[in-house]
Amino acid sequence: MTQSQDPIRQTIKQLANQAIAQSNPSSWFEVVYAESKGDANQVPWAKLTPHPYLEDWLKTHSQTNHQKSALIIGCGLGDDAEAIAKQGFQTTAFDISSTAVAWCQQRFPDSTVTYTVADLLAIPTQWQHSFDLVFECRNIQALPLSIRATVIESVTSLVAIGGTLLIITGLRETEAEPDGPPWFLSESELNQIEKWGFIEVSRLIFWESDKQHLRIEYCRQAKKC
């Protein structure tokens, strides 16, 4: 992290804490995007390129994906959604921030992705158990531990039977609540995913800023994944 980013992250921490105090823990995302006024440098997680470990996963899962459906949670500025769509998935991407969604549509005017505004804590009923691939990158960790179980249940409910849940997240080593955001996930929190009928297929460990991160692929069980 550069020194120029520190004030931005301090502002985000203040916004997140205010949102939690107001019992609306996801409301601060729209504030960040709106106040950036179109400058992606003011959005710390916006890299304007697909996540490299998503791209790596897509390269090793290049089987035909025609007519398979994909959902990107908290799509941000759309780069991950575009990468998945290029692999042939019929792709839907949502964000709670209307500014972010409009930004995606402006960046990718000819996209095949359906960008839409939605709330992970109040997902549309028709999305439940509907997607062959669900990609969740660092959205769970952006929400406080007090609603973690609810968020995990919401994420898992989106995956079709036999479908894939791909998660990228930071990992914390203890159960103690960290000073966030972000609030990295613990192993016990990751274990909650399995209680919703998932098995872990693969796990890749990588490091960013001397902190451990994971890319985990899960399969929602039918009789056999």
Key attributes of the depicted protein:
alpha/beta; seven-stranded mixed β-sheet
* Tally of individual helices: 7
| Helical proportion, percent range | 25-40%
Radius of gyration equals: 17 Å
Distance between the termini: 40 Å
Order of strands in the sheet with most strands: 3-2-1-4-5-7-6
Q: Which structural class fits the helix and strand makeup?
A: alpha/beta
Residues in β-strands, percent: 15-25%
What is the overall pLDDT average?
A: 92
Order of helices and strands: HHHEHEHEEHEHEE
Major β-sheet profile: 7 strands, mixed
What is the β-strand count?
A: 7
Assign an overall shape: globular
The low-confidence runs, each spanning 5 or more residues with pLDDT under 50, are: none
Structural notes for this entry:
The protein has 225 residues and is of the alpha/beta class. The chain is 30% helix and 24% strand. The protein is built from seven helices and seven strands. It has helices at residues 6-21, 28-36, 52-59, 79-85, 98-107, 148-156, 187-194, and strands at 69-73, 90-95, 114-117, 131-137, 159-170, 198-208, 211-220. Strands 3-2-1-4-5-7-6 form a seven-stranded mixed beta sheet, covered by helices on one side. Helix 1 packs antiparallel against helix 2 (28-36). The chain starts with 5 loop residues before the first helix and ends in a 5-residue tail after the last strand.
